[in-house]
Amino acid sequence: MSDEGPHKTSGSDSGSELAGDDGRDRIGVIVPSSNTTVEPEFERATADDVTIHSARMALESVTVDELDAMSDDAVRGGELLAHAAVDAVAYACTTGSLLHGPGFDVELEERLEDAAGVPAVATARSVCRALEGLAVERVGVVTPYTEALDEREAEFLEVAGFDVVAIDGRGIEANTAIGTLDPDDAYEQATAMADGRSLDAVFISCTNYRSLAAVDRLEGDLGVPVVTSNGATLWDICRVASIDIDAPGALFDRS
After folding, report:
1. In a domain, 255, yes or no
2. Which residues pair with 26 in a beta bridge?
3. How many whole angstroms separate alpha carbon 171 and alpha carbon 255?
4. What is the pLDDT of residues 67-106, one digit of tens each?
5. Measured on CA atoms in the order 145, 146, 150, 152, is the torsion positive or negative?
6. What are residue 139's DSSP bridge partners?
7. Count of other CB atoms within 10 angstroms of residue 4
8. CA–CA distance, 135 with 163 (Å, rounded to integer)
9. Is residue 8 in a domain?
10. Does the keyword Isomerase apply (predicted)?
11. pTM of the model
């Protein structure tokens, strides 16, 4: 699919019949099995007539080997979400969608779109679209990840055309431990990383890092847009599904 993205489609004929006309928009998300943040952040940021439906992929630790194995479950997740007649599907894992470098994220979106029969987005590509839409050149990045994954993420963003001025990781592998981090942790890590640096934006990486609630405060204090993995993914899937949304941050102000 192109970066402009299609408008909402009804999927297959059988999916349309299943969906009926109940007035709800349905967002499908494919998440790591240990992720405890995507669904609640999406639910809090969307209207009552938008429902979130998830499929899960096996992952306990955020390591190269486990992320690589997890991606094998993605297509099956897309096929199963099609049964719920969702309007669009998101592969909601940042490092899982950039693990194999630029191009893997685009291929992943295409595979999921074929499997689900509706528009699909992948977090790594959604982040790039968000940063591009905000005209970002110089970005500072904070993550919960180990150094090995930070290096892959920085390389991915650099090849995508962004100048990664700094990247700061917490060195955490256990995804359940990442899920215990809260918006105050994100605020403190982002402000420390950005201190004294000239940036066009801050990116808080990881769909299991509870950080969307820190965006307004960070943007007010730092004076630059702040993009989170879940914020970018939610913005992108609502864009391709033609769903109106009002969520924190400059990214949604331009929707």
Report:
1. no
2. 51
3. 34
4. 877 777 888 999 999 999 999 999 999 888 777 778 888 8
5. negative
6. 164, 201
7. 9
8. 12
9. no
10. yes
11. 0.89
Task: Calculate the dihedral angle through the C-alpha atoms of 116, 77, 239, 26, rounding to the nearest 10 degrees.
Answer: 80
Do 105 and 186 reside in the same domain of the chain?
no
Does one domain contain both 122 and 236?
yes
Tokens found for residue 134: 């905000």
Residue 180 has a pLDDT of 97
Q: Is residue 6 part of a domain?
A: no
Alpha-helical runs (H) found in 8-55? 13-19, 38-45
Q: What is the CA radius of gyration of the chain?
A: 17
Which structural domain range is residue 138 located in?
Answer: 127-228
Look at residue 69 and tell me if it is in a domain: yes
Q: What CATH number has the domain bearing residue 152?
A: 3.40.50.1860
- Strand order across the beta sheet in which 120-122 lies: 50-57, 25-32, 88-91, 120-122
Residue 187: its pLDDT value, please? 98
Q: What is the pLDDT of residue 99?
A: 77
pLDDT at 255: 53
| CA–CA dist 71, 2 (Å, integer) | 22
Going from the C-alpha of 181 to that of each of 41, 48, 70, 83, 189, the distances in angstroms are 14, 27, 23, 33, 11
pLDDT digits (tens, 9 = 90+) for 151-208: 999 999 999 999 999 999 999 999 999 999 999 999 999 999 999 999 999 999 999 9
Q: Which residues pair with 91 in a beta bridge?
A: 30, 122
Q: What per-residue confidence (pLDDT) applies to 146?
A: 94
CA atoms of 104 and 136, how far apart (whole Å): 22
